[in-house]
Amino acid sequence: MNNHIARIQQVIEPLRQEIINHKVYLVINDLDDLKIFMQYHVYAVWDFMSLLKSLQINLTCTTIPWFPVGSANTRYLINEIVAGEESDVDGDGARKSHYEMYLEAMEQCGADTTAIHQFIATLQETKSLAEAYKAADVPKAAQDFVNFTFSVIESNKSHLQSAAFTFGREDLIPNMFISIVGDLNMKFPDQLSLIKYYLDRHIEVDGDHHSHLALNMTAELCGEDEEFWKAAEEVTIASLQQRINLWDGVYQDILSVKV
Fold it and tell me: How many CA atoms lie within 13 Å of 245's alpha carbon, on the beta-carbon side?
């Protein structure tokens, strides 16, 4: 294994454990709790796609006329990940992005999708995150999470985008959450089969094949540049802290409803 990769993995392990063992999972006890979780998490699912596409734009040619950009290896790595994330197959074999799968899972279980649809519609119209947050009344924790992601995107630095994508997003669904959804699915199979499929697919594709591709992509982009690796470590730590903050927001929201 690349020594720099190993170092980042060692440095971030306490943060990863904090996320994997976050107290939010202890308060997801019923369908209503899960709906709240999903109404926050959907923003992370969406901005993950934005981070992914920013990498594809930077690492490949997406304009006409076409010219070769960067190395063919990084082009392959990002295009392979994009194909899987943007046009995977759902449980019926239909092509869908993981974001579209997640929306369908929300709709099936009765989670409110009004806010995320309003957010997307306003963002498409105004091109302003601030306007979209306001129109959709997006929770502050989700706003902060998306703002951080877009600060990484707007850095226009592929090695930072890749590090945030690779270490901060791809492999953070804990077994505890899978078990919670599995148990709830046994009680409500007609409402949770789609989120169960999404999670199973995420582990199968993102946690295995895509994570290896992403590690290779980050290693290639940082190369032997010590400053790049240092910056990659810093953005990774910040990414994981943002995830903790997002889960803190979900936790507080679920608790407020239970009172």
Answer: 17
**What digits encode the pLDDT tens for the residues 96-136?**
999 999 999 999 999 999 999 999 999 999 999 999 999 99
Q: Which residue has the tokens 């993950």?
A: 48
Sign of the CA dihedral 232, 204, 209, 61?
A: negative
Contact residues for 64 (Cβ-Cβ < 8 A; gap 6+): none
CB 172 within 8 A of CB 211: no
CA 137 – CA 54 distance, rounded (Å): 26
How many Å is the maximal CA-CA distance in the chain? 59
pTM of the model: 0.93
CA distance 135 to 199: 29
By the 8 A CB rule, do 105 and 188 touch? no
How wide is the angle at C-alpha 151 spanned by C-alphas 219 and 170, nearest 5°? Answer: 45
Query: What are the C-alpha distances in Å from 192 to residues 85, 113, 257?
Result: 21, 15, 21
Sign of the C-alpha dihedral computed for residues 84, 34, 181 and 143 taken in this order: positive
CA–CA separation, 41 and 52 (whole Å): 17
Both tokens of 84, joined, read 């899987």
Report the chain's terminal Cα–Cα distance, integer Å.
48
> pLDDT (tens digit, 9 = 90+) per residue, 124-168?
999 999 999 999 999 999 999 999 999 999 999 999 999 999 988
The answer for 157, left when phi > 0, alpha when psi is -120 to 50, beta otherwise, is beta
- Rounded distance between C-alpha atoms, residue 171 and residue 223, angstroms: 23
